Amino acid sequence: MRYLPLTPADRADMLSAIGASSIEALFADVPSAALLDGPIESLPNHASEMAVERHMARLSGQNLAAGEAPFFLGAGAYRHHVPASVDHLIQRGEFLTAYTPYQPEIAQGTLQMLFEFQTQVARLYGCDIANASMYDGSTAAWEAVAMARRITKRGKALLSPGLHPHYAGNIKTMAKFTGDQIVHEAPNLTPDAGEVGLIAQIDGETSCVLVQYPDILGRLPDLARIAEATHAQGALLVAVVTEPVALGAIRSPGELGADIVVGEGQSIGVGLQFGGPYLGLFGCRSEHVRHMPGRLCGETVDASGKRGFVLTLSTREQHIRREKATSNICTNSGLCALAFSIHMTLLGGTGLAALAAENHRLACLAADKLAEVPGVKVLNDSFFNEFCIVLPTDARVLVRDLALEGVLAGVSLGRLYPGEDGLANGLLVAVTETTSEDDIDALVTAIREKLA
Amino acid sequence: MNANPSGWRPATPEAVTRDGASAPTFTGNRALMLEEGLIFEIGSLNNCGVDLPTPSAETSTRLGGMSRSTPPALPGLSEPETVRHYTRLSRQNYAIDLGLFPLGSCTMKHNPRLNEKVARMPGFADLHPLQPMNTVQGALGVIDELAHWLVTLTAMHSVAMSPKAGAHGELCGVLCIRAALEARGDPREVMLVPSSAHGTNPATAAFAGYNVEAIPAGDDGRIDFEALKARLGPDVAGLMITNPNTCGLFERDMIAICEAVHAAGGYVYCDGANFNAIVGRVRPGDLGIDAMHINLHKTFSTPHGGGGPGSGPVVLSEALAPYAPLPYVTKAKDGSFELVEEGDEGAGESFGRMAAFHGQMGMFTRALAYILSHGADGLAQVSGDAVLNANYVLRALEDVLEAPFAHAGPCMHEALFSDAGFAKGFSTLDVAKGLIDEGFHPMTVYFPLVVHGAMLIEPTESESKAALDQFIGALRSVAERAKAGDESLHLAPLHAPRARLDETAAARNPKLAWSEPAD
Hints:
The complex is a heterodimer of chains A (452) and B (519). Chain A is α/β, with parallel strands linked by helices and 452 residues long.
């Protein structure tokens, strides 16, 4: 057994040293009714590295990888090119196999990285501060709702119709148990993002308004206008960003008036990974720092006066405050935060802007070409790298059929909003720098042929 | 030809002492110990380490008037500078790859590199979570196969795979309990949690809307069963208990505890953080529990990554299974896999969704590779060696450190000591920092709370006898210094990248983001 260093002779020596007759004797406190007298049934015995790799490769081969087909899926998870150095660096054992930095003298690598990450996220979001990460964008969105309740002492959260339905689903799940009131409807298939209707629902009971930017249909809501109306009622604006690359092209939520900005960081450095692990990002104003969930890294000095970094403000956290903590989160997404931070360092602000411009250029090209297909209507006036098209047929069926032909056409609204018949013909199409113009032509041709 | 006709050789410096070791260097570096600035100090806003098309100024945009006028103020570095920056930072970290990492309750075991390789196979890593089911059968197959082995190893009814870490799994389990109670029209207010529990347990129960009440530990380090029985009643939703517990002991009365909680109409949540002690030998379902999260980043070797990502699937009893979160994988009659999501048949009583997608796929592939690598015989040897190693440490040190609970018998996979006997003014913290100078990561300190100055040591099965012997020697030496009142211990660590850091100052005046120096 290649992962176990003890030899039979070591075990015998050690048992003798501790005065035990056998390893089994060390399990004497386990009730005999629950102690197995043989190996776990049906599980085979140990296997070689080669045999396990072969088994896993077989399973891997049963999937159609995104890189093997013209690929247009988004809806909260985006395929971007991740430079090779990112994956190399996160596999440095000193990062990969370290624990949460509880002993800062021998964890400055992770801590300095987190301090840099927090600063990068804060600047990207236009916030004063950001935390050291959450599980994913959807759990970060829930934590923002809970934080807004703590700050405003109000219990009604208003979710914009353009919020990702899985984020809304997570928030509704949690609210069932905490008693928060959640107001949320499915979006309408209109070019505008529904700001007027949303603003009309804000009242003096509202703790926060959650607005996705760009929204689930790719539209760009007027955050500044919503911020003004939200603040007029004493509520907080929470902006939700599922595609951080967009912020290379559009103004940051913080500068448009958002009080809390949360989102998914997966686009930068992390990869698709079939949905996880991902990276929840969380930023806010400095004045709200003590209400924040999650880990925070701060600058300090050591006993000899050198700059160093530590986890700080832990009196908000579960290991100190127990049942009075701001959140139960412990482990977060440290290694994904590292991947994000490395990729963002490679890009820099100008690189992010160039990356965003290329995404937008290709998305505009795709929208124009799709608009020429008879029967296809492009819904959006505004979008970044993802937009919604309306088909004359059920988009979920079309997506499934095109997959059989080797084209991954997008995310159907039917998948996201089961039971909402009015949305069933909607298809979200995401285009990134990894999409070639040939891919776009393949999609256009495939849809044209299906609809003919 | 003789290139060195005089025969000159560099002389060994005569009696150059190491007194100069503390003299400052020009750079502040110490040979391989390299100081590194922040990216905001060494990078530039115009640098970029990625080749991208230059944006055309003429291109019209459809950004709805939201275009930004200048790029975000984020520094960039070229690729070589980036590689060097993060490589230098990495060298300021301790890690399991460098040495024994005995953090109790954290299970810092070896992270096999095969697991890294399989997680990066394109059929897993380059897969979108919302691809049509007919293109992701292998990925759903991984989830189903791992789920099968987790259920098999725990003798439970089913497993919820989507929770993203241990605490998220706790939340999943407690929400299942609450949903089950509400479904039977018997909502209850109180969750019982032993005083030795991880902080996440009371935080989770409170989050789920329960009043948290502590049950004390008995003199033997186990839950006070009589106190528990006395508190059970119609207002108690359940008990959150860790087994083996945080004192490193198996709860001998576990079967009776579960029966008592069930008799009072409640459910038992087991914190599975310590499953590594019993995997392959004890199936928690045989003890009578209703729910338990499994930290794949502990027992099943997925890397901790400096604070995540984790993964916390929750095994459930038949009574709680109907309430498990969406989505989940099922196998159709024709053998194909499907993902049950909102609106699908089978979503019925689920309490809903608790993450954007299906869970930590990148951790599932790694954990499955680990389970198959070890197999039934290997997993039993894992828990056996983990427990043997902990007992070896316990017995080797109990003459110099007080072992408050385990003097009478074996511990499980972790050895617990207190600070009894240290000289006045010397603390567990001093011992921890002294261990850093000896080249080890310290053990878990000041936890569990039921022991004064607790030191909780979990060596795991990954350590050789030689590594344990060296660690034991080092801890013995440091403990003797604490007992003898060796003042130099207060200065430890002397050889780490940083001396002790001022955590009070960090919290009093938080500086959480870099800003341009004022001058």
